[in-house]
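Hello Y.,

Per our agreement to keep a running log of every chain we model this quarter, I'm adding this entry. I've kept the format consistent with earlier entries: sequence first, then predicted structure.
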Amino acid sequence: MTTQILILCIGNILMLDEGVGPRIAQELNEHHEFPPNVQVLDRGCMGMSLIADFKSADKVLVVDAVDNTGYEPGTIVTFRPEDIAPYQAFHGAHDTKLIDVLQALALLGYEPEVDCLGVQVENMHPENLCIGLTPSVEAAVPTMVQSCLDYIKVMGAP
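Predicted structure for the entry above:
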């Protein structure tokens, strides 16, 4: 059986650095080709609707903006969802926390292996809606893209 790999990119492109997930999905999909067992999805803001995406995957890398890490803006962090579950201040920028989605998924009998790749934001609350990333987060994009490619390779896909 072939391992199904999902790169799940989350974020709101209208909120500056909050749009880093969709930016990574765009870079991956525009500049790389993947085998049939690898999907790269831009899913906007996190919510329970992500359950369907998780159900089709064995291995998932969630790519998102993070805040309150204590690191400088543009710093890339990796973590497991359970590592951050107890900490209200350290989570993705969305109302629904990743651990909530994974717990609902487990109740349905699905438990994919999930890792997370995040970048510390500089600004995800602009005064006016706008598309783009701050320079520090934009500078992290190539490394985040390469990290996604490395994850895919480590999980067994070319």
